[in-house]
Amino acid sequence: MSDIVFVFPGQGSQTVGMGKEISEQFQEFKETLQEASDSLGFNMERLCFEDPEAKLNLTEFTQPAILAISIATLRVLQKRAGVNPTLVAGHSLGEYSALVSLGALDFSDALRAVHFRGQAMQRAVPVGVGAMAAYLGNSGELIPAICKEVSTNDCKVEVVNFNSPGQLVLSGHKNAVAKVCEEVSARKLGRAKELPVSAPFHSSLMQPAANEMAVFLSKIPLRAFSGKIVANVDAKLHTAQSYSHETLVKQIANAVLWTQSLAILQDAAPQSIWVEVGPGKVLQGLTKKTYETVNCLGTQDLTSLKSTIETLSK
């Protein structure tokens, strides 16, 4: 068996019904969602499978839901394919899932942390003040400079997700984000379109949320772990000795260096199989756009999960 790289998705991968078929098939998946319900005091299965109160897209519920589905999926892989993570990364919120996978964070602690994280992020900037936009095109190297050109002291926009060579995400004050979108169109640099989100995530406007998380996370232990994790904020390979609470705190108001993180993972394990553990196919897509030859498997539904178990069990 080749080395295995586990990557964990972030916000935006959620869909109503996620995990339902898997839960019906695997008892350990169902038990993990019950554990999440007990930790947070609301019905995780109901939220993920049915979402009757339309809460799944509210960030304070999205974040624990994706983490719960990701860890439930991981536990199926561990039990059915006999694999354990040693080299991991997670996209934004997914970094919490990655830490749980290594044993660095207790599952219950991580659930409570991301639930609070979602609330803090929403509190940080009043609705309507901030915005985000996706850039798609071949001139990504020019976009950070345009953001600087457009920004003023009280109206800022920044590149906050380096997702793949042709895909960036911008975040900041609504007017500044709109101005960059206009500039991209006027200069014929590709496409930039505002995203339907409720806050300017990962921008410097999120610093109040980072301050709240610093206090919250100071009460949660980070345990020693033997594997390695690539952190979003610096795209560096961390061990238990170098990873700290501060790494997670900084993540909230700083860019997600995902393209750079993929490069580190590829260097660390060039012949590896990659597995996106959790809902959706976002990270599989970004991986293929960045490294066409990487074999990236999915677990987004029962069919893909069973196929991945079969591959990893060989």
TrEMBL record:
It is an enzyme of class 2 (transferase). Residues 7-309 form the Malonyl-CoA:ACP transacylase (MAT) domain. The active site is at S92, H202. It comes from the Bacteria. Keywords: Acyltransferase, Transferase. InterPro entries: Ac_transferase_dom_sf, Acyl_transferase_dom, Acyl_Trfase/lysoPLipase, Mal-CoA-ACP_Trans/PKS_FabD, Malonyl_CoA-ACP_transAc, Malonyl_CoA-ACP_transAc_FabD, Malonyl_transacylase_ACP-bd. GO terms for cellular component: cytosol. Coiled coil: none annotated. Its EC number is 2.3.1.39. GO terms for molecular function: [acyl-carrier-protein] S-malonyltransferase activity. GO terms for biological process: fatty acid biosynthetic process. Belongs to the fabD family. This is Malonyl CoA-acyl carrier protein transacylase. It comes from Fluviispira sanaruensis.
